[in-house]
Amino acid sequence: MNKTILRRALSATAAAGGTAALMLAGITGASAHVGVTPDKTSAGSYALLTFGIPHGCDASGTTKVTITLPTELNDAQPTVNPNWVVEKVTEQLPEPKKLADGSSITKRTSRIVYTAKTPLSPELRDALVLSVKLPDAAGTTLHFPTLQNCEQGQTNWSDIAKDGQDPHSLKAPAPSVTITDAAAAGHTDTASAAPASAVDDDGAGARSRAGLVAGVGGLALGGVALARSRGGKTVPGSAAKE
To answer: CA-based Rg of the chain, rounded to a whole angstrom?
Structure first.
């Protein structure tokens, strides 16, 4: 193979690998926060909220996750997760709250506490799912401040953007869901939601896919460079020639 052709092919492969590395860095950064992904956001609907726990506190495993419910919600039903012990914490309301069906409540579920049976390694991730009834208030953003306790240290995901502030500038943003009009069923709009695939995947899977993209991309671009240099023709046995 001509040395000039070889250099071009290697350069194309390196460029593809560099692009894949940048893509991987973006994926890692996007999934660094505790986020929530709803399966529905339409006003008044019952929704499953999946909280993704992507890593520990630096190199320390996660031992407990406390999710605070916004005042707009009266209750939440946790989905069983065999890796955690779950507890619902209630609070006494300052005065009875009247519901849409005419009944009243004097207590509400204020927090959901997940305690890990074994500390969740910072190299692994898990998903915690809550079933809730969304309020009839399209356009409202519900915030779920989440305290992540680890074997050493903790992270309080509770920052909420002020008017005019970019949510992406927050250091530890609270997971949030924006309610949409009931007519827009199926549409989701979350301020800090992680992609559904990021929730049931781990870092190793992301690295494997990025490596595959880099490899396939490098081979493809290398082949294009080789074909162009030969006018689009393949010369049998030329690979053994210098």
So the answer is: 25
Measure Cα distances from 193 to 169, 175, 211 in Å: 15, 7, 25
One domain for residues 130 and 163: yes
- Give tens-digit pLDDT for 101-155: 899 999 999 999 999 999 999 999 999 999 999 999 999 999 999 999 999 999 9
Rounded distance between C-alpha atoms, residue 93 and residue 70, angstroms: 13
User: Number of folded domains in the chain?
Assistant: 2
Domain range holding 153? 35-194
CA distances to 174, 190, 214, 218, 222 from 16, rounded to whole Å, are 35, 32, 6, 5, 9
pLDDT digits (tens, 9 = 90+) for 171-182: 999 999 999 998
Do 51 and 145 lie in one domain? The reply is: yes
Residue 164: Cβ-neighbour burial (10 angstroms; 0-12, 13-18, 19+): exposed
C-alpha closest to that of 179 among 42, 51, 39: 42
Report d(CA 206, CA 110) in Å as an integer: 35
